[in-house]
UniProtKB/TrEMBL annotation:
Subcellular location: Cell membrane
The keyword Glycosyltransferase is annotated on this UniProt entry: yes
Domain of life assignment: Bacteria
Coiled-coil annotated residue ranges, if any: none
GO MF terms, alphabetically ordered: hexosyltransferase activity
Species: Kitasatospora atroaurantiaca
Lineage of the organism: Bacteria, Bacillati, Actinomycetota, Actinomycetes, Kitasatosporales
Topology term for the membrane: Multi-pass membrane protein
Region described as Disordered: 441-475
Stretches that traverse the bilayer: 45-66, 116-140, 152-167, 203-223, 229-248, 293-313, 373-394, 414-432
Name this protein carries in UniProt: Alpha-1,2-mannosyltransferase
């Protein structure tokens, strides 16, 4: 049983509680944070609050001197204005950089409320909202990893909201006023819900309607046997397309037939801002168009990453935090294989770091005689990579991105290197746990669920299958 599923199980000896009526669920969602704060230890929570406050004050000072343009927020507002005023959505150009609209029409429709407020108010509101979403992403990551204990999670949420602003992807998200944290929270909220929920997949479909890359998580649901949730995500995405076509038919036709395939509207592939596999190959080849080699590399990473994610999920009988390894592997794959993944798209570093911290905490809890120092160095190196701002240190102004020397390639490609390393680490983790349990590395032909060799654990269709319910609790 995965850790997320373990938390949802009723205590032994007590009858399972009936699901709350639909009208009461919003009230429960509001009651949960209050109850969690009451149950949290007072002194650690107060200390975490003080640390977070000092960190955010320091961030505000740095933000003031560095300058925060929030150009993407301005583009979103212009898109909303174009929808509200009946203007050409994909013909607009705003800011001194002449930035165009790049998201589907459905996203532009949701940006309309931003036109009701001035730029100054939006700067404050969106910054505060993103910091709150950062804390929510931390909470969802804790639920996914099943760590730390429930009463300590408010402490962790406060620390992530206060200290997470220094992670380069989060810092850049705040600086540009991006929607990455919204998308990550939608996806992770959906993936931490019980598989039995009929509505599971809706949030992923909405996220894909806003920005196409989250659609890969529907593929993840499909290859892990959660077919209904994958179909719900797919039909929800089609619903966002239909809504866009109904309200903005011309823009919808233009986006899906022309603008989606015009990469020049998004940005240059070779610049260090682009931390995808394709961007790394372009810088390595010193070519603005890396061609078929980059396409092949991205395809290989996509297949390997999704296979690793599915392998991790289907190894829940032997692998602690199997769902967390699967989700993080899928997230890393999505960012790696996108043709252009700006540094702020890597906000998935938050659940990655939480997962590695959970592994390090488990490692530390072992008796000293059998303790092995593995996860703490890995956690430290990963954290350092996302705090380093390494890609901005190398000379990259003008056309220097196309002429980076060999010594500058690694810092310029720090996130693709970390991402590929994480996928390798995930595969090695699954392999090690299966071998330690004497289980086959993959399900062998003609083996049935519940067979003595344990291979049947891979045949379940999802979290609700009987064999996954009988699996031992994650350690």
């Amino acid at each position: 049983m995965t850790t997320v599923q373990e938390e949802r199980r009723a205590p032994e000896g007590l009858p399972a509680q009936a699901p709350a009526p639909a009208w009461r669920r919003p009230l429960q969602a509001l009651e949960a944070p209050v109850r969690a704060l009451r149950e949290a230890p007072r002194r650690p929570l107060a200390l975490a609050g003080a640390v977070a406050l000092v960190s955010l004050l320091a961030y505000a000072i740095v933000r003031h001197f560095v300058g925060t343009s929030m150009v993407d927020m301005i583009v979103y507002r212009a898109e909303g204005a174009a929808v509200a005023n009946g203007q050409d959505l994909y013909g607009l150009r705003v800011t001194e950089w002449n930035l165009p609209a790049t998201y589907p029409p459905f996203a532009a429709m949701l940006f309309v409320p931003t036109t009701w407020f001035g730029i100054g108010f939006l700067r404050m509101a969106i910054t505060a909202g993103n910091i709150a979403l950062l804390g929510l992403l931390g909470l969802l990551a804790f639920r996914l990893a099943g760590w730390p204990r429930r009463e300590l999670r408010p402490v962790g949420v406060v620390l992530i909201a206060g200290l997470g602003v220094w992670l380069e992807p989060v810092f850049t998200t705040l600086r540009y006023g991006q929607i990455n944290l919204v998308l990550a929270c939608l996806i992770l909220w959906d993936l931490t819900r019980p598989d039995g929920r009929r509505s599971k997949g809706i949030a992923i479909g909405i996220a894909a309607g806003l920005k196409l890359t989250p659609g890969l998580f529907a593929v993840y649901l499909l290859i892990t046997g959660r077919v209904r949730a994958a179909l719900v995500a797919g039909f929800t995405f089609l619903g966002t397309f239909a809504l866009g076509a109904l309200v903005l038919p011309d823009a919808t036709y233009g986006f899906w037939t022309k603008y989606l395939y015009d990469s020049s509207r998004v940005g240059k592939t070779e610049i260090v801002d682009n931390q995808s596999v394709r961007g790394a190959v372009a810088r390595l080849l010193h070519a603005a168009d890396p061609g078929s080699l980059a396409t092949l590399a991205s395809a290989l990473v996509a297949v390997a990453g999704l296979a690793t994610a599915a392998w991790a999920y289907r190894s829940a009988r032997w692998l602690p935090r199997a769902e967390a390894w699967g989700v993080c592997s899928a997230a890393v794959t999505a960012v790696l294989v996108s043709p252009i993944s700006w540094t702020h798209h890597w906000v998935w570093c938050v659940p990655m770091l939480v997962l590695l911290a959970a592994e390090a905490a488990h490692e530390r809890s072992r008796p000293a005689a059998v303790r092995r120092l593995r996860w703490r160095p890995i956690l430290g190196a990963t954290l350092l990579a996302f705090l380093s701002f390494a890609m901005w240190v190398v000379p990259h102004k003008g056309d220097l991105d196309l002429h980076l020397p060999a010594l500058h390639q690694a810092p310029a490609d720090v996130y693709p290197l970390v991402g590929v390393g994480f996928l390798l680490l995930s595969a090695l983790r699954v392999q090690a746990r299966r071998r330690a349990a004497g289980a086959p590395l993959v399900r062998l032909p003609r083996q049935r669920a519940g067979s003595p060799d344990g291979a049947g654990a891979d045949s379940g269709s999802g979290a609700g299958s009987q064999e996954r319910q009988q699996a031992p609790a994650a350690r």
